[in-house]
Amino acid sequence: MAKITLSNLAHSYLPDPQSEDDFALKEMTHDWRDGEAYALLGSSGCGKTTLLNIISGLLRPSHGRVLFDGRDVTDHPTAERNIAQVFQFPVVYDTMTVRENLAFPLKNRGLPAPEIARRVQKVGDMIGMEAVLDRKARGLTADAKQKISLGRGMVREDVNALLFDEPLTVIDPHMKWELRTQLKKLHHDFGHTMIYVTHDQTEALTFADKVVVMYDGRVVQIGTPQELFERPAHTFVGYFIGSPGMNLFDARIDGTKAQIGGTRFDLGTTYPLGGGRVKIGVRPEYIRLSDTGLPARVKRVEDVGRHKIVRLEMDGAEVNAIADESGTVPDGGTHVQFVEGGVNVYENDWRVAARRETEAAA
Questions:
Q1: Sign of the dihedral through C-alpha 131, 188, 54, 109
Q2: N or C terminus: fewer CB in 10 A for the chain?
Q3: Looking at the 3D structure of the chain, how many domains does it have?
Q4: Which residues pair with 32 in a beta bridge?
Q5: Which CA distances in Å does 92 have to 22, 127, 132, 141, 168?
Q6: Strand partners for 252
Q7: DSSP letter string over 20-41?
Q8: Domain membership flag for residue 240
Q9: CA 227/CA 233 separation, integer angstroms
């Protein structure tokens, strides 16, 4: 296991990058704690796999350093970093049996045969392949082969880190849930540092202790699922996390008063703004239908069983609210109000802490 430090890290695939836009990864400095499970979350093309490949040693960064427990491994090949990596598509040896595939990394490290047999049997049970351990990998389905790949990553107990690059893409939905559960159990039992790349927020939020959200080559927030939900540090985090995501309103703020469209309301505190573009973010869970407040029009209601998603129009923009399953939703015109504590203020897409938050932190 290892603490992973990314120090002034940046990467460009161009030979002579001239501006920040030329970098697939913008400069970042982060410590990833020893023994924690992280999910790298973001949309396609945001830099997740690039960052994972830099950590694993498959790619050397253009700038900065990678350190494992304070030791600079930037120029070390993958084999010297003592990591296990599982890729999006299965990598198996077709001529070997499932058992031989799982045992391969252990044999390479010279472990005694009884220990190899014990670990292979344990992992075979974990991935649900104990009945086919002696079957050749050739001819197995894609999801079965991917389970072998996962098993090869899980079979080692001495690794600095386990890295997963969207490993459940080819796995059927029911098995995805089971394998995520097994990965969490593996982390609980052995305390490996784990980094799991995904664009699926459900995978990220159910797997990780901390979620690392990436956008346009940047890490925009590292936090627990609750932190990402309650206090998104960037408008992208608010939009990307949650279903539906956070509502964002163009706003003007003057002291403790805010204005959206033609309606003013009290925020209850002030925000240290610098004159940039201001938005107010409110999750659907914190919007209430009311007789007073911001005027809105109900367009449709979607009953999803546990609650209702109310689609509204406010000032020409679509707004989402979540109502109780038992609640009634009026047709047509209504108003909305924001639940106290559920409002976030953003300037140029970055969250601005309220004065009272700043005072509490001090």
A1: negative
A2: C
A3: 2
A4: 4
A5: 36, 15, 15, 12, 15
A6: 259
A7: GGG-SEEEEEEEE-TT-EEEEE
A8: no
A9: 9
